[in-house]
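Usage

Read records sequentially. Each one opens with the input sequence:
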Amino acid sequence: MFFFKKKKESECKPVEGGEFRVSYVSDGQEIYFTHVHIDSRDEDFDDLYIPKKDGYNFDGWYFDSTYQNKVGVVNSKDLPRTPIYDQNNCHIGYKDITLYAKWIKNE
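and closes with the structure output:
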């Protein structure tokens, strides 16, 4: 049996940039996605996608399908980034994000 010693974070190569996918879900289906590319300049980020649906007003994006945790930003660069670590405890990227559209029926 082999045992590998985990590296100290200071021994890991720093992650320069990277990317994560943002999926936009409405009524249980992915309607749009984009890849957010992170680099040292932090420029050229897109505003969050704004969908349209006949007979409804868009009430915003949520991090969960039960609409409890509303997204409080309008630009993809401001979305929270959840780091991913490898078996050596080195940061290797970011988790993808799924956002859920909430709709309010027009009266």
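Summary fields computed downstream for this record:
- The two ends are 67 Å apart (CA to CA).
- Residues 1-7 have pLDDT under 50 and may be disordered.
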